[in-house]
Design brief:
- The complex is a heterodimer of chains A (110) and B (110).
- By secondary structure, chain A is mainly β.
- Chain A is 0% helix and 53% strand.
- Chain A is built from no helices and 11 strands.
- In chain A, strands 2, 4, 5, 9, 10 and 11 form a 6-stranded mixed β-sheet that branches. A 5-stranded antiparallel β-sheet of chain A has the order 1-3-8-7-6, with no helix packed on it.
- Chain B has 110 residues and is an all-beta fold.
- Chain B is globular.
- In chain B, strand 5 and strand 6 form a beta hairpin.
- The chains are: A mainly beta (110), B mainly beta (110).
- Chains A and B meet through strand 5 and strand 10 of A and strand 4, strand 5, strand 9 and strand 10 of B.
Chain lengths: 110, 110
Amino acid sequence: GQQLNQSPQSMFIQEGEDVSMNCTSSSIFNTWLWYKQDPGEGPVLLIALYKAGELTSNGRLTAQFGITRKDSFLNISASIPSDVGIYFCAYKTGANNLFFGTGTRLTVIP
Amino acid sequence: EAQVTQNPRYLITVTGKKLTVTCSQNMNHEYMSWYRQDPGLGLRQIYYSMNVEVTDKGDVPEGYKVSRKEKRNFPLILESPSPNQTSLYFCASRLGTEAFFGQGTRLTVV
């Protein structure tokens, strides 16, 4: 699969701060997905994006499908301790596979 | 409750001793897959299956086998495990863009 680069690799933030992370690729995609992995668990889907420029929210989370279709952004507002975990971006290929990025590890300091 | 169940959760084995990690889903999904998660590398797909008796290689299939004799089960087989297969393994079943992951199997090969 195509490589997905996530930035930053890890973040340490204070509770209450806003968080921003992104995912980039050299290829164009039709679907961008954001998953979260809680410590000791499997990843869970947070947000799915299907159209360039699309902005979608899920509670305090907001994700955007980049206009170029080569990137996506995830923002978390007013972080809380349970936001801790690893955030993965992913895309779905034409062959119906899911490929994941390298992940952004978020630590929230109370 | 909809779920993907992997067993065992933890396994320590010796090089060369064949092992099987089981995966079962109760959602009647056609698509199932196996991933391994390593620090800094994210989730990498090992094998996937689009339906019963249909399996195909993912990005890192070397050293692994799978079978899909029935829709609900998708075991991962390591015929001769080696230390570089020490990793955290996830099974997932999928409907559309939403993948449902098991809780993971942490494998150590010594």
